[in-house]
Specification:
The protein contains ten helices and 13 strands. The protein is of the alpha/beta class. It folds into two domains: about 170 residues, Peroxisomal Thiolase, Chain A, domain 1; about 150 residues, Thiolase/Chalcone synthase (Peroxisomal Thiolase, Chain A, domain 1, 3-Layer(aba) Sandwich). The strands form four sheets. Strands 1-7-6-4-5 form a five-stranded mixed sheet, sandwiched between helices. The chain has a four-stranded mixed sheet with strand order 8-13-12-11, sandwiched between helices. Strands 2-3 form a two-stranded antiparallel sheet. The model has no long low-confidence stretch (mean pLDDT about 95). It binds coenzyme A (COA). The site of coenzyme A has 20 residues, from helix 2, helix 6 and helix 7.
């Protein structure tokens, strides 16, 4: 038996902010952003929240799969931008869906959150613990940005993507996951500082900070290596893969990965032009775009891969 994706959904905030819009509020240019990253627009939450977007994506994924909320045994949400410390986003999604039979919890693995969620579902299904699961990646990254730091805020966007997974004959063939906490300082966002009657701290807000060049080097090394390993574990050749659905951080990273894997760039769909980097939301949103364009047929082999803060990375080979 395997863990197979049987439905996808996604939600993007209604406000679209173009590079030209950003030129009006900070010292940047469309040319700088597009040439270094490929990003042209991103969706920014105004009324939406991490939970509201997660719920919309989940509803669409359930509808796409023909599954009712009461059939869900497990709800996982990958997020680094929850609305609350607690309850978890996953529990809030459970409440909104009335998915009363599910266990629900969040995963903090940044841009690898969806891949780590798939890994957990895969293991639970292999152990016979669950039959049907919902994995969501949902982010409101705009609230974690310093909008005075043009080096980071132009790169990210808000949104959510979801997939329904069922224990069935075909699905995930292999999974690779990893972390390197020793290099975590290259991409950070501080939480509240210790602040209590015994240790007084000013509760200053902190935002996303990144060493872009180090993250770039990490990505172009780690993503091809993890995809290669996942392919080897699955016993599948790269040329048998129809689509490589990668985390959408930067077009140059995707081009470098395609080159290292020796695969044509046409096999690497992108939506970063439209969305920017949505961390855990990125892979499931792109998967939903590709699915809804009718580009996936039963039996197709695809690769999903993510990388990000932690540092963390994950790759999966699966049969659609
Ligand atoms: N608009 C205009 N200029 C900008 C800018 C912006 N939005 N952001 C930074 N700059 C400037 C810098 O101030 C710097 O100017 P200086 O040379 O006068 O000091 C110059 O552009 C170059 O900055 P640098 O950071 O060296 O650029 P880069 O070529 O490394 O590109 C990234 C920056 C972020 C696009 C690139 O490093 C990258 O994509 N890294 C990976 C990031 C990533 O994927 N993160 C997500 C991981 S999940």
């Amino acid at each position: 038996m395997a863990a197979g994706i049987i439905g996808t959904g996604s939600y993007l905030p209604s406000l679209t902010v173009s590079n030209q819009d950003l030129e009006k509020i900070m010292d940047t240019t469309d040319e700088w952003i597009k040439s270094r990253t490929g990003i042209e627009r991103r969706h920014i939450a105004v009324e939406e929240t991490t939970v509201s977007m997660a719920v919309e994506a989940a509803r669409l994924a359930l509808e796409n799969a023909g599954v009712s909320p009461s059939e869900l045994d497990l709800i996982l949400v990958g997020t680094i931008s929850p609305d609350h410390f607690f309850p978890s986003t996953a529990c809030e999604v459970q409440k909104a869906l009335a998915a009363e039979n599910a266990t629900a919890f969040d995963i903090s693995a940044a841009c690898s959150g969806f891949l780590f969620g798939l890994g957990i579902v895969n293991a639970y299904m292999a152990a016979g613990m669950i039959k049907t699961a919902l994995v969501i990646g949902a982010e409101t990254l705009s609230k974690l940005m310093d909008w005075n730091d043009r080096g980071t805020c132009v790169l990210f966007g808000d949104g959510a993507g979801a997939a329904v997974i069922r224990r069935q004959d075909e699905g995930i063939l292999s999974m690779v996951q990893g972390s390197d906490g020793g290099r975590g300082e290259v991409l950070t966002c501080e939480n509240r500082k210790v602040n209590n009657p015994y240790r007084k701290n000013p509760s200053d807000l902190s935002f996303t900070a990144m060493n872009g060049q180090e993250v770039y080097k990490f990505a172009v090394r780690t993503v091809p290596a993890s995809v290669d390993e996942a392919l080897m574990k699955a016993g599948v050749r790269a040329d048998e893969i129809k689509y490589f659905i990668l985390h959408q951080a930067n077009i140059r990273i995707i081009e470098a990965v395609a080159k290292r894997l020796g695969q044509p760039i046409e096999k690497f769909p992108t939506n970063l032009q439209e969305c920017g980097n949505i961390s855990a939301g990125s892979v499931p949103i792109l998967l939903d775009f590709v699915n809804r364009q009718g580009k996936l047929q039963k039996g197709d082999k695809i690769v999903l891969a993510g990388f990000g803060a932690g540092l963390t990375w994950g790759a999966a080979v699966l049969i659609w």
